[in-house]
Amino acid sequence: MKLKTKVEVCGWLVLAGIVIYGLKYFISILGSFTIFRNALAMVVMLMLIIAISSDNEIADKVRSVG
Length: 66
Prior knowledge:
- Helix content is 92%, strand content 0%.
- The protein is mainly α.
- The chain has one domain (2-65).
- α1 runs antiparallel to α2.
- The model has no long low-confidence stretch (mean pLDDT 74).
């Protein structure tokens, strides 16, 4: 079960990396609009928070099963 959570964390990190790369490309197309940069940064932060909270839920499930 611990390996599964590590794999899921790695998966989330890979997804976050792909999203961040895509956002950088998107920002380069839009140009230097600080409003868009702030909005995209908030989206990334929300995704990371969701990933961390879901990982904590998984850890709680593992503990309850164990």
